[in-house]
């Protein structure tokens, strides 16, 4: 387990990079011999759209809508993509004071995009975390291979659930490349993520969130992740909202469109409800993506 180094506005951005060791694929999460109802965990994955000043849809215009959305939903975990450092500080400020976040920039600094994970400190306590690069050299900051147009990263956090007897679990959050049509790029990234999850304690649940820039059920990355044992909460949820394409680009929503933003879990996690949130205010969306949410029992 790497040393736990919290990344917050008080400490600035620091990078800790995991060793690139290939371990066996995922194993089924340990099931408790004595079943009991577990408190639900509300999880959101959300590509924030970076904080551009260009109109329309600048961050200044979108921020109040984002604030209203997040304050209304109050997930325990908010896995974000594309957030710039100051933008993440804005969101931290706009959320209730019991939220904190962990993340680092994909270039290793404070001005570039990250895949930060916000969490409710009343419910969750981080006990370890790490960031690695989706490349042949995961320990090299800013590295990119396989046709990635930009450095791509994954950040994971091991949490202790304060309302579930201190039970621990992992959240791994990522953002795969958006341009390359080379299936190997996304497949290689997915395979590296599988290797890293294979290093986690197999007795603990794991959530994998992100903007995968790939349609569920129709891409090699999805096949690799599910082939390794992960399950898609959208498919397994007892209840679902209406399906929309999760990327809309500020254009009219597309019913029954592609889900490129996912919440996956190891087996044994119960998905009670999955939602694609279409919140907007006076026609203004908080991002060019729709947030995806799941209510889970780990």
Description:
By secondary structure, the chain is an alpha+beta fold. It has one domain: Deoxyribonuclease I, Chain A, CATH 3.60.10. The protein has helices at 59-73, 85-94, 183-197, 220-227, 233-236, and strands spanning 41-47, 77-81, 99-102, 117-120, 124-133, 153-161, 168-175, 206-211, 231-232, 239-240, 261-265, 270-276, 292-297. A hairpin with a 6-residue loop joins strand 6 (153-161) and strand 7. Helix 1 (59-73) packs across helix 2 and helix 3 (183-197) runs parallel beside helix 4. The model is unreliable at 1-35 (pLDDT under 50).
Residue-averaged pLDDT: 88
Dominant shape: globular
CATH topology: Deoxyribonuclease I, Chain A
The largest beta-sheet arranges its strands as 3-4-2-1-13-12-10
CATH superfamily grouping: Endonuclease/exonuclease/phosphatase
Q: Compute the gyration radius: what is it?
A: 18 Å
Distance between the termini: 22 Å
Question: How would you sum up this structure in a few lines?
Answer:
This protein is an alpha+beta fold. It contains five helices and 13 strands.
């Amino acid at each position: 387990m790497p040393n736990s180094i919290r990344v917050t506005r008080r400490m600035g951005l620091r990078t800790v990079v995991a060793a690139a060791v290939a371990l066996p694929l995922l194993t089924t999460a340990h099931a408790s011999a004595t079943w009991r109802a577990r408190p639900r965990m509300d999880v959101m994955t959300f590509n924030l759209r970076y904080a551009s000043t260009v109109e329309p849809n600048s961050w200044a215009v979108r921020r109040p809508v984002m604030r209203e959305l997040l304050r209304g939903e109050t997930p325990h975990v908010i896995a974000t993509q594309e957030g710039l450092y100051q933008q993440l500080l804005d969101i931290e400020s706009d959320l209730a004071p019991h939220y904190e976040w962990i993340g680092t920039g994909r270039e290793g600094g404070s001005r570039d995009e990250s895949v930060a994970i916000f969490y409710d400190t009343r419910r969750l306590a981080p006990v370890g975390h790490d960031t690695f690069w989706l490349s042949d050299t995961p320990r090299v900051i800013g590295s990119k291979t396989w046709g990635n147009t930009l450095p791509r990263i994954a950040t994971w956090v091991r949490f202790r659930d304060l309302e579930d007897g201190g039970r621990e679990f992992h959240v791994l959050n990522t953002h795969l490349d958006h341009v390359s049509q080379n299936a190997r790029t996304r497949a290689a990234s997915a395979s590296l993520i599988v290797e890293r999850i294979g290093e986690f304690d197999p007795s603990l649940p794991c959530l994998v969130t992100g903007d995968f820039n790939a349609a569920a059920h129709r891409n090699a990355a999805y096949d690799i992740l599910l082939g390794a044992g992960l399950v898609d909460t959208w498919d397994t949820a007892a209840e679902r909202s209406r399906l929309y394409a999760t990327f809309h680009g500020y254009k009219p929503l597309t019913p029954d469109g592609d889900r490129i933003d996912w919440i996956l879990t190891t087996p044994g996690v119960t998905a009670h409800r999955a939602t694609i949130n279409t919140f907007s205010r006076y026609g203004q969306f908080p991002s060019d993506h729709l947030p995806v949410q799941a209510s889970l029992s780990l």
